[in-house]
Design brief:
By secondary structure, the chain is an alpha+beta fold. Helices cover 47% and strands 15% of the residues. The chain has 13 helices and ten strands. The strands form three sheets. It has a four-stranded mixed sheet with strand order 1-4-5-8. α9 runs parallel beside α11. The protein is globular. It starts with a helix and ends in a 7-residue tail after the last helix. The structure holds flavin-adenine dinucleotide.
C-alpha cells in the first residue's frame, strides 16, 4: 500500500502544494487522483463499491498523504463521514448513496456540528429541525463547517426535541443528510442555507452556515429521531485515529526535513547537525513520534477487532497532535530563517499541523475524557 500511495503522492510535489496554499485553492487534481485510484473508498464495504479495508489500512493512506508533504485535511471527511451513514442509515439510504460516494460521484465531505454560541458544549446546540408533514424545517447557525464548497452532501446535527423536554441532555438531537446544492438553491435569491467562508490561518476551506427555514425531506433523517448525538459520537473513534495518523505523517515529514537540513547546512565550517543543541531536539521529536505511533496502532487494532477504543483513539490523537507540533517547531528552529520561507514548506506544514490540537477536538476535552472515563475523576462539566 505504501509503495502504491507513494507512486501517487510523489507526483504532487512541493511546488504543487505551495501553489494550492498560495492561491488558497483546493487540491482538485490530487483529490481526483486519490478518488479515482479508490483510496478514498477504503472504509466502504465491498458490497457498496468500496474496498472494505480496516482502519489500520485507512490510517496509512492519511499518514502517507501528510508524510509526502500534502495535506489530507482537504479530503479526510470523504473517507470517514460516510461511517455515520454506514452504521446508522437505512439499507435504502446506503444503497442510494454509498456506491456513489465510493466512486466520488457524490462527495460527503462535510459534517456540521459546531455552533458559534455553544462551542464544545454540543448538547446546547440551538439549530433546530421541526417536523412539518414529510419535511423537517431547519433554522439556526453553524460555524467552522469545512469543505462545503467541495461537497455534494453534508451531515447536519440539529435539535429535534427542545433541551428542556429531554431526560438526558444528549437526547433529542438528530442527524440529517443535506443535499447541499438543493439547500443553497443555487441561483435563487432566497436560499434555505447560506454559506460564508472564514479566512483562516491554514488553507482549509471552512465556513459559517446560516439556516433560514431550510426544508429537508423527512427521508433524509439518518437512523432514529433523537439519537443523533450518539450516532455522531460513534464515528469519533475512527475520525480521531485517522487524524492521529495524519499527525504521524506530518511528524515524519518534519523529522526527515530537519535531519536533512541539519546534515546539509554548514555554519562555522561544520554541518549544524553536528551540534548537540541541534541534534537533540530532532532525536526527541523522533522518540515522541514513535511512541505516539504505537498508540495509533493500538487504537487501529482495537477498532478493527470491534473492541472499545475510545480511550486509545483519544490518546493516539492527543499524543500524535502534540508530537507533530513539537516536531514542527523543531523543524522550524533547525531551518533558522529559511523555515519562514514558503519554498521550504516548513511554515505551511507548521500551520497545518497546529490545527489538530484544536480540531476536530481540542486537547482539553481529551484530557477531561481520560480524567473522567478512564481515571474515574468527577465530571467537570
Ligand atoms: C479549521 C477548522 C475546521 C473545523 N471543521 C469543523 C467541521 O467541519 N465541522 C464542525 O462541526 N466543526 C469544525 N471545527 C470546529 C472544531 O471542532 C472546534 O473549533 C473545536 O471543537 C473547539 O470548539 P470551539 O472552537 O467552539 O472552542 P470552545 O468550545 O469555545 O473552547 C475554547 C477553548 O476552551 C477550552 N475549553 C472549553 N470548555 C472547556 C472545559 N470544560 N474544560 C477545559 N477546557 C475547556 C477548549 O479546549 C478550547 O481550547 C473546525 C475548526 C477549525 C478551526
Amino acid at each position: 500500500m505504501r509503495e502504491a500511495l507513494r507512486g501517487l503522492t510523489g507526483t504532487y510535489d512541493s511546488a504543487y502544494w505551495q501553489k494550492v496554499d498560495h492561491e488558497r485553492g483546493y487540491p482538485v487534481a490530487f483529490v481526483d487522483a486519490l478518488t479515482t485510484a479508490g483510496w478514498m473508498a477504503a472504509l466502504i464495504p465491498e458490497q457498496y463499491g468500496g474496498s472494505g479495508l480496516g482502519l489500520a489500512e485507512a490510517s496509512v493512506i492519511m499518514e502517507e498523504i501528510n508524510r509526502s508533504g500534502g495535506n489530507a485535511g482537504s479530503c479526510h471527511g470523504q473517507m470517514y463521514n460516510m461511517g455515520t451513514l454506514l452504521r446508522h442509515g437505512s439499507e435504502a439510504q446506503k444503497q442510494l448513496y454509498l456506491p456513489k460516494i465510493a466512486t466520488g460521484e457524490l462527495r460527503l465531505q462535510s459534517m456540521a456540528v459546531t455552533e458559534p454560541t455553544t462551542g464544545t458544549d454540543t448538547t446546547k446546540i440551538k439549530t433546530v429541525a421541526v417536523k412539518k408533514g414529510d419535511k423537517y424545517v431547519v433554522s439556526g447557525q453553524k460555524v467552522w463547517i469545512s469543505r462545503i464548497q467541495h461537497s455534494d452532501l453534508m451531515i447536519l446535527l440539529a435539535r429535534t426535541t427542545p433541551l428542556a423536554e429531554v431526560k438526558k441532555k444528549s437526547e433529542g438531537m438528530s442527524i440529517f443528510l443535506v443535499d447541499l446544492h438543493q439547500a443553497m438553491r443555487e441561483g435563487t435569491t432566497k436560499p434555505g442555507m447560506t454559506v460564508r467562508p472564514i479566512a483562516n490561518m491554514v488553507n482549509h476551506e471552512t465556513n459559517e452556515v446560516f439556516f433560514d427555514e431550510l426544508e429537508i425531506p423527512a427521508e433524509n433523517l439518518i437512523g432514529e429521531e433523537g439519537r443523533g448525538f450518539k450516532y455522531i459520537l460513534d464515528g469519533l473513534n475512527a475520525e480521531r485515529t485517522l487524524i492521529a495518523a495524519e499527525c504521524i505523517g506530518d511528524g515524519w515529514w518534519f523529522v526527515e526535513h530537519a535531519r536533512d537540513y541539519a546534515n546539509d547546512r554548514v555554519v562555522f565550517d561544520r554541518p549544524i547537525g553536528r551540534n548537540q543543541g541541534v541534534q537533540f531536539p530532532i532525536a526527541e521529536s523522533y522518540i515522541e513520534l514513535e511512541a505516539a505511533n504505537l498508540m495509533r496502532w493500538k487504537a487501529c487494532e482495537l477498532f478493527d477487532a470491534q473492541q472499545p477504543c475510545g480511550s486509545e483513539s483519544n490518546m493516539a490523537k492527543y499524543l500524535a497532535a502534540k508530537a507533530s507540533f513539537e516536531a514542527a517547531n523543531v523543524c522550524m528552529q533547525t531551518h533558522g530563517g529559511f523555515g519562514f520561507a514558503a519554498e521550504y514548506d516548513v511554515e505551511r506544514k507548521f500551520r497545518e499541523t497546529r490545527l489538530y490540537q484544536v480540531a476536530p477536538i481540542s486537547t482539553n476535552l481529551i484530557l477531561s475524557y481520560i480524567a473522567e472515563h478512564v481515571l474515574g475523576l468527577p465530571r467537570s462539566f
